[in-house]
Amino acid sequence: MNVAEAPDPELLRDPEAYARLLEHVREAVLQGVPGPRAPRSVVSDSWHRSLSARVDPDEGEAPFVYDTGDLAALREGHPLAPVLPVLRQMLVSIADDAEHVMIVTDADGLILWREGATGQLLRGDQVGLVEGTRWSEAAIGTNAMGTALATGEPVQIYSAEHLVRRYHTWTCAAAPVRDPETGVLLGSIDVSGPLRTVHPAMISLVTATAQLAEGQLRAQLAVRDEQLRRVNMPHLEALRGRPGALLSAGGRVLAAQACLLPSTVDVRRGGGTVALPDGRLATVEPLEEGYLLRLSSSGAAGRRSRLRLEYLSDGAHSTTVDGREVPLTLRHAEILTLLALHPNGLSAERLALQLYGETGNPVTVRAEIHRLRSQLGASVVQTRPYRLAADVDADFTRARTSLRSGSAADVVRVFRGPLLPESEAPAVREERETLTAQVRQVALNSDDPAVLWSFWETACGVDDFAVLDALLRTLPATDPRRAAVSAHRARLA
């Protein structure tokens, strides 16, 4: 959520003079003649939308949609009702002191709640700023509530920046509030009052309050998710290890077993068969609340691609998908390396940091991922977060496994050279240095000439004095390899 631009210094020095200037700007725009200055872009765009909706700039007024009786049911069922105490705590006392009114709308601009000092409430009554009226741009033109809902961003509207004349003595700041589960707009939070009381911090305050409300909704969602997991976990356990997941009513994955899934599954009401982004088929069964997802165990659509990465080499790296070799740039090989090392996925920001360091740009990463997906297929590299959805066989992960549980011979059999030796990506370089150091130590600790010889044949070990000395110590005098090692050691000395 971006905070809107700060008020013009001229407004803060002389609100009345600034209001007159805005009036001249508005009149010039409506008459189609040059004015003293151009309106702010957010205002100009809003005027255009409002006029296209046939809002009358001189006689428009907010339509009265619901009476008090009908409004009570809407309030009770609205998603912002649970966070109303937080909004009151943050804004009402400040609104009272600043002679403002706090307002909460739904996503269509309908005023659900309005609180503030009695004098300001009466002043709001005179212009229809009351509960039950609609303040969308299409209904009443440019205003902070309607424009925040139209743009999805916080905004502050001053005096004659309101398209409709009757609101020119008002200033208002509003910020949208979104559902933490779906991202859809739930409504807006607004503080409105007389122009003479405008304060540069009001837009920041309203924005911070909206973010706090979203945080409260997110915390409440987490509690509901945990309750849903606890109640429905027996359904997932009944699959007895077969791939499946518990989903929220909106399709978010709450718990999964034996499968990798996107964060959200597109479910239809009532369940049924769904196709995952990688082509796998799944059956979604409605529960009392939420869904149980079962992954299909057969069928071509459910087959995962096989991705093979041979990146431990003194020469060129090799990438194959289902046996088909795909020529990749070094950057794309670096991305696949990092995704293979992080099977749960990486965000664009994390991936940018690991590829480029502190100067990394997520936009650059997104472009590279787009090109990589066009080469390998969307079923191999998935998004949100970026992750591999194929069966991955990478020599560097096999080397890691051998280091933990294999013999020294197994380790050097996999390790045929440094990991992407030309890469300067910080995370790849760190992995390369760590893996090389571990394999080197395993070889030195083995005192096995075959293991030492295998490591010496790589670019990592060929000029390593400790490795050369260990070979000379362990190779029998009659072994012809000893002469080659001795000659190379002498050239380095």
Number of helices: 18
Tell me the quaternary state. Answer: single chain
Strand content: 15-25%
Text of the CATH class of the largest domain: Alpha Beta
Uncertain residue ranges:
none
**N-to-C CA distance:** 63 Å
Q: CATH homologous superfamily of the largest domain - what is it?
A: GAF domain
Please give the structural blueprint.
Layout: H1 9-13, H2 15-31, H3 41-52, H4 68-77, H5 84-97, E1 101-106, E2 111-116, H6 118-126, H7 137-140, H8 144-151, E3 155-158, E4 170-178, E5 185-194, H9 202-237, E6 244-247, E7 253-257, E8 272-275, E9 281-286, E10 291-295, E11 306-310, E12 318-321, E13 324-325, H10 330-341, H11 348-356, H12 362-376, E14 381-382, E15 387-388, E16 391-394, H13 395-405, H14 408-414, H15 426-446, H16 449-456, H17 465-474, H18 480-492
Parallel strand pairs: 11-16
Antiparallel strand pairs: 1-2, 1-5, 3-4, 4-5, 6-7, 6-10, 8-9, 9-10, 11-12, 12-13, 14-15
Short description:
The protein has 493 residues and is of the alpha+beta class. Helix content is 45%, strand content 16%.
What does the model show?
This protein has 493 residues and is of the alpha+beta class. The protein folds into 4 domains: 211 residues, 2-Layer Sandwich (Beta-Lactamase), CATH 3.30.450; 62 residues, no CATH class; 88 residues, Orthogonal Bundle (Arc Repressor Mutant, subunit A), CATH 1.10.10.10; 98 residues, no CATH class. The protein is built from 18 helices and 16 strands. The strands form 4 sheets. It has a 5-stranded antiparallel sheet, with helices on both faces. The protein has a 5-stranded antiparallel sheet with strand order 7-6-10-9-8, with helices on one face. It has a 4-stranded mixed sheet with strand order 13-12-11-16. A hairpin with a 2-residue loop joins strand 12 and strand 13. The longest helix is centred in the middle third of the chain and has 36 residues. It is elongated and about 105 Å long. The two termini are 63 Å apart.
